[in-house]
Amino acid sequence: MLTHRTLLNQNGILRKFVKVASKAFSNMVLAKKYIYVKPYEGMPTEENVRIVEEELPELKNGEYLVEAVYLSVDPYMRAYAPNYKIGDTLIGTQVAKVIQSKSSKFPVGQYVVGGFGWRTHSIIKDDIPKTEWNVPYIVDIDEKFPLSLALGVLGMPGNTAYLGLLEICKPQPGETVVVSGAAGAVGSTVGQIAKIKGCKVIGIAGSDEKAKWLKSIGFDHIINYKTDDLQKALEEAAPNRVDCYFDNVGGETSSIVLQNMNKYGRIAVCGAISGYLSKDMTDYPKATSVQRPMISFELTMRGFLVNQFLDKWFDAIAQNQQWLREGKLQYRETLYEGFDNMLKALVGVLKGENTG
Ligand code: NDP
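C-alpha cells predicted for Prostaglandin reductase 1:
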C-alpha cells in the first residue's frame, strides 16, 4: 500500500527522505537493492530499475553490517545516470544503523552516514581511505535533531550550501545574492547563510507555496520563474544589480541572472537541474550565451563539486549545527515512507514536488 506521505512534526517542520523498514533474518541477512535495468529516457520510470534481493555473507574481521534508516533522494541521482552500466546498484547516501560489527571503529548501535546506495542492508569495510568521496562517518548531531538531518542541512546539501557560498561567492555585507532552486535543501540553506552574512537575498523558485515559506525564513524577495517575468522581476528586486549568484538550475534562468550581475560578480555553479533529464551532456537545452556579461562585468564563474572541500566537511557541519541551535537556520524535509518508494521520491524531486 502506499506509503507516500509528507509528515508535519510538532515544530511545523516538513521532513523529506525515504524512511525504510526492512528485515533482518536470524542467521543470514537478506538485503534489497535497486539495480539499473534500462537507460532512463527523460523522467525515470519503473521500467528503468528493479528491486532485487541479495543474501549477504558472514562478516569478516574489519567489516560491519548496516541497516538503512533514511535514504537521501537527490537530483544528482538522475544526472549521474549516463555513467550507469546495466545491472549497477543505484547510487546514494543513507543514514544507517550498525546492526552487526567486527570493527572497533563502527560498533553495533551507532548511526553512520555513507554512500551505500539504494540498499536496505550493506556490509562495509572499516578502512575506506579518508580521501575517498562518501567515506562513512558516525553521525554526530544533537539528540533533539532528527537523524535525517545528517542527509540534509547537517550533511552533504548543507555543506554544499555553506562551502559553495562562502568559498566561491564570498558574499560581503550589503551585497545582493541570488539563489536559484531556492526552496531545495541546498538553496534554502544558501539564502539563509547569505542573510546571516548581512546580504540582501533573492530566491528563484517554482511555486507560490515555496515562495511563502522562503519569505517566512528571511528571504527578501522571491521570484517564481514559472509565472513571473524574470528579467523584470530582477530589475525590481535588485536595483543595485546582483553581486553573487548561487546557481542550482542552469539554463535560461541563469543566463538572465548573469545579464543582471554587477561588475566583479561571483557565480558558484552548483547544479544544472534544468538539464538533468537530457540524454547526456551534449543534449542539454540551449540557453542564451553568457560570454558577453562575463566579459562586460568581469565576472568570476566557478563550477564545483562539494567533495573538493572534504578538509572543511566537519567544520561546515559544526557551523550549520550551531546556527540551527541558535534558530538562525530553518529547514524543511519531505519524507516518503518505505524502500519501495525510492523511485517515486526521485521523480518527485525532479518534478519540484519537494521542499527542502
Ligand atoms: P532541490 O530540492 O533544489 O532540487 C529539486 C528542485 O529543483 C525541485 O524541487 C524544483 O524546484 C527544481 N527544479 C526541478 N526541475 C527544474 C527545472 N527544469 N528548472 C528549474 N528548477 C527545477 O535539490 P538540492 O537542494 O538537493 O540540490 C540543488 C542543486 O544542487 C541540484 O541541481 C543538485 O544537483 C546540485 N547539487 C550539487 C552539488 C555539488 O557538489 N555541486 C551537491 C549537491 C547538490 P522548483 O519547484 O523551484 O522548480
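The chain has two domains: 29-151, 156-326.
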